[in-house]
């Protein structure tokens, strides 16, 4: 019989001629073979998984998994056909299987995490659950097409997430208050800065305005003085012209009078005419002199005042500029000097420290090298002497000039004393062997008594001191000689 499966179905054929099972979309079903059909469309499974965190806090994880056979993998389809296809995919058996896997993996994962980690890393927690569940479903040939894990929910009687949400909400509210306060603070600071800048700019503009106004006033006064001077000059010129006109008029009158009386008084008026001419010249010269005097008086006074004011203003401005420049230059030089002193001090200290460190290092290296060389030298000598420490010591003392130094010290000690050296012994020779003194304590006492006379004699010769009378009396050898 020829069987054909629908688009979302597969044929599962077993029996004669088939070693295991055969999957096909369409096939002939021969006698002795069995054929069944299973649907591969995914199914939604809704669960509310109850789990417990590492702190033993219970919670509920609502989830909806869309699960179905893996249609793009033949091995997964074979697993599904063998293990799941005999049961209806909506059956209680399949649902319990899927639910058991999801709940088991969720509980294992939740038990290894704290509630804080689960709450803050919800996305990572869901992804971890998805991966672990998929790993378990692979052995049944199932694939998770979609997993919608909802928000974590508190178990009745345990309001952890509610309190945690309230905590987050309060933290956000507090942070918002802090941000608002900070924004207000920045706004007030910015407002004060703007007001300060406004006042500074206003003061600057006022100062510039006063300077410009003063300049304008000076220019106005200058122009006023100039105009007054020109007016005065013009008035003087007009007066001179009037005087000249009057002189001309007088001259003409005199001429007319002269012409009228020329016939009569030509001879007598010749002197008068000459006087009139001279008087006219005098008047003209007086007028010119007056004009020049006025010019010199007013122009010189105005020029002097103007130049004086200008020089005073320029001097004040120059003085203030130089004072400001001097103060600025002094501050700059002080700052540069302080910086240079600080740099020099730092560099000097650093160089001294580096020099001391380098000297100490080299001194330590020299001491180490000297100690190593002396150790090698002493080991070589000791080996050459066969390990005889006494011989090594004598050699070092001889080589180091120890005995010569001892002799020098002794010679320096007795230099200038001119001692008289006496050599004596206690007389312990073979002649005493016949005496009746034994080798015991009496022999030692006898030796001491024999030693005293030469000792006292030597002390007398070297120091001039005689022993006390109760001890002994020395014979004067020089008297017998």
**Radius of gyration over all CA atoms, rounded:** 69 Å
The chain-level mean pLDDT equals 78
Uncertain residue segments: 430-434, 477-481
Shape: flat
Task: Tell me how many strands there are.
Answer: 9
N/C terminus separation: 171 Å
**CATH architectural arrangement of the domain at 40-158:** 2-Layer Sandwich
**How much of the sequence is in beta strands?**
5-15%
Order of SSEs: EEEEEEEHHHHEEHHHHHH
Percent of residues in helices = 55-70%
Question: What structural class do the secondary elements suggest?
Answer: alpha+beta
Q: Would you tell me which CATH topology of the domain at 40-158 applies?
A: Tetrahydropterin Synthase, Chain A
Largest sheet properties: 4 strands, antiparallel
The CATH superfamily of the domain at 40-158 appears as: Band 7 domain
CATH hierarchy class name of the domain at 40-158:
Alpha Beta
- DSSP helical segment count: 10
């Amino acid at each position: 019989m020829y069987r054909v499966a629908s688009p979302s179905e597969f044929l599962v054929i077993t029996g004669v001629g088939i070693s295991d099972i055969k999957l096909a979309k369409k096939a002939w079903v021969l006698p002795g073979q069995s054929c069944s059909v299973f649907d591969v469309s995914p199914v939604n499974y809704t669960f509310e998984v109850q789990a417990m965190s590492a702190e033993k806090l219970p919670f509920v994880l609502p989830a909806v998994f869309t699960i179905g056979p893996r249609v793009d993998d033949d091995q997964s389809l074979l697993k599904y056909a063998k293990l799941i296809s005999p049961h209806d995919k909506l059956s209680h058996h399949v649902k319990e299987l899927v639910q058991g896997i999801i709940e088991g993996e969720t509980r294992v994962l939740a038990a290894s995490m704290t509630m804080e980690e689960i709450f803050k890393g919800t996305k990572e927690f869901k992804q971890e659950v998805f991966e672990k569940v998929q790993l378990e479903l692979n052995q049944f040939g199932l694939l998770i097409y979609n997993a919608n894990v909802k928000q974590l929910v508190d178990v009745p009687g345990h309001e952890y997430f509610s309190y945690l949400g309230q905590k987050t909400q309060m933290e956000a509210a507090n942070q918002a208050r802090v941000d608002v306060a900070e924004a207000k603070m920045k706004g007030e600071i910015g407002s004060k800065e703007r007001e300060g800048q406004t006042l500074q700019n206003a003061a600057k503009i006022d100062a510039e305005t006063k300077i410009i106004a003063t300049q304008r006033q000076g220019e106005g006064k200058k122009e006023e003085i100039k105009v007054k001077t020109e007016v005065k000059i013009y008035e003087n010129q007009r007066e001179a012209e009037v005087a000249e006109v009057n002189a001309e008029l007088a001259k003409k009158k005199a001429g007319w009078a002269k012409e009228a009386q020329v016939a009569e008084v030509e001879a007598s008026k010749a002197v008068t005419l000459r006087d009139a001419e001279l008087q006219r010249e005098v008047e003209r010269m007086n007028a010119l002199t007056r004009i020049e005097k006025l010019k010199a008086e007013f122009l010189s006074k105005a020029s002097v005042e103007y130049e004086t004011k200008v020089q005073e203003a320029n001097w004040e401005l120059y003085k203030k500029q130089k004072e400001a420049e001097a103060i600025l230059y002094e501050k700059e030089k002080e700052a540069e000097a302080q910086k240079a002193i600080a740099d020099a001090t730092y560099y000097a200290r650093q160089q001294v420290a580096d020099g001391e460190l380098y000297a100490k290092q080299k001194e330590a290296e020299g001491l180490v090298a000297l100690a190593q060389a002396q150790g090698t030298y002493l080991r070589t000598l000791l080996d050459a002497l066969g390990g005889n420490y006494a011989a090594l010591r004598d050699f070092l003392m001889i080589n180091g000039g120890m005995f010569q130094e001892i002799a020098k010290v002794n010679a320096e000690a007795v230099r200038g004393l001119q001692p008289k050296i006496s050599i004596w012994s206690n007389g312990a020779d073979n002649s005493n062997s016949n005496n009746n003194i034994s080798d015991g304590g009496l022999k030692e006492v006898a030796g001491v008594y024999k030693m005293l006379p030469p000792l006292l004699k030597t002390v007398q010769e070297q120091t001039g001191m005689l022993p006390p009378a109760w001890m002994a009396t020395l014979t004067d050898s020089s008297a017998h000689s």
